[in-house]
Known about the structure:
This protein has 455 residues and is α+β, with helices and mostly antiparallel strands.
Amino acid sequence: MTRSRALKVLAVCIALPFATATIAQDLDSDLEALKAPSMPAATIIGTQINEVNRVRSMKALETALLNNFADADVGLKIPDNYAVEFQPFLLGRLKNYNYKEYLGDDQSLCESIWRNLAISVASTKNYPIKDSATDAIGFGVRTVLLQGELSAAVRTGFKAAVASLELGDGIKAGVKGSIDNTLLNDPAATLAQVKAAALTDLAQLSAVAALDTAARKSVVDAAVGLLDEFPDGMANTEYVEAYADLYDERIQSHLLADLKKAIDEVGTERYGLSIEFDGAAALNFPTNEIGYTYGPRYGAWLNIAYRLKKGEEGEEVARASEFILLARAINHNSDFYRRFDPPDTTFDRGLNVDLGLKYVLNKDRWSVELEWIQRFNRARETRLIDDVEYYRNVDNASSKFMLNLNYTVAKNVNISYNIGKDFDDVFDTGGNLISLLNLNVSFGGLDAKKVVGEK
């Protein structure tokens, strides 16, 4: 390879849009990434989850499902108070995806729905039937219909992080190409000669990166400086592989961390109006046997959020406060309740309609949520007396109050505590106190090879 050809290859490496690979592998998305997630799958089975896994790779999803739902002896098992959530768009290798689209400015409604779609599965061993507890699984989906506005500072930071990774990836390929080219022209070239040639080559090319001069120089100096860390006596035939390993360990890991932080901010630091759609269905095992199932209820709802902003025009940023309006409808399977309620009295629970308001305050690692929901329900009570069936409509209205405290312990680990009053169900007398400690864990990470592409 001639030096001029190597320079052309490096120029192409730097100029190519890096996000045709999966930048999104570790996106926390626009779905309340820094707070304990409120999963539709958990809501529909009426349980508070002790452990939540949010997976970001196919391998992590497979591990989560096998570890929690598979049993060598019985096959499928139902874990208690467990949930897993994943986003299909982010699990595979994204082809022809431009990273700039993640900013959301030009997304169509269909694109926004698909790219933000999250699927959740939750399970419990305490789904009530008569006086017993049974197994149940909830299946849920949620997605973003309308995203909030993104501040100029966050937008600029995201683009700078992407440009740094692009530049670094180009430099890695360029240094490796320069080493090969130098040794091709002079097989006996010393490390000093290799480094001098690399500096000359990169100085001509780094200017194409979308970064200011200081940022470009910082990445170039750090990348070329790795050559000084080669141990004495290393054969020059080992330079390329040694450089690639050092680059991944010392530079790419930091650039990926910066990009991850920028991605989080794009997903969470938005202000103004946003709308999220949720839907879910429950599957119950009345006899706790896998082969006998019923679908007791299903529902859909909207979360309409408004986050305050601060700052002068053109310099707005999101405030820590957010208000969320809930509108939800959950329908019950009449046949299920008639079959599994006491024989002399059955209740057709009918349709629940919920209206609620939530206030969210985010501060550093903490998130505090105050939630109020008013439920309206019309059920049908049926009694069989002397072989004659009698029925009446039973109206029920009840409120739910909740205080949620969330704390981000470490990367991908969140602890939350929920306390409050649950709905007063006209058919149940099991109490209405809610008090639960939750652990939320995310698995999978930003895959460098997919982000920058295979070289």
